[in-house]
Write a structure and sequence with these properties.
single chain; about 120 residues; mainly alpha; flat
Length: about 120
């Protein structure tokens, strides 16, 4: 796995950017994807390729457990004042700090946003 190779060679990963965009680079389904009138006109196989390439990469490389994201969802779902967060972006690591929980390994992931990365 590429992550293992990087760690073996460099000792650590300094920055990991997770992106769920699989791209169009290798599509060969015979359609002119650039001429589609909406996502609903594209073949389902295209979605499958994007989902597999993008979301799978995020899953494999993410530093947070699936349980951590689940805890964020549970915390928000049980918050009587969740309406105050309606229509806003929520970062799981910040939700954890706000609601006082950690990941299953006891770590507290740092919220990666502009304010924390300067």
């Amino acid at each position: 796995m590429v992550i293992d190779n990087i760690i073996a060679e460099q000792g650590k990963i300094d920055i990991l950017v997770n992106s769920v965009w699989g791209g169009y680079e290798y599509y060969n389904d015979g359609t002119e994807f650039w001429n589609k009138k909406g996502f609903w006109t594209a073949p389902l196989s295209r979605f499958d390729k994007m989902f597999s390439a993008g979301v799978r990469a995020y899953y494999v490389t993410t530093s947070e457990s699936a349980e951590f994201i689940g805890l964020a969802i549970a915390a928000l779902a049980t918050d009587e004042n969740v309406i105050d967060k309606s229509g806003t972006k929520q970062i799981a690591a910040q939700v954890a700090i706000d609601y006082g929980y950690t990941d299953i390994d006891g770590k507290q992931p740092k919220p990666l946003n502009v304010a924390n990365c300067q």
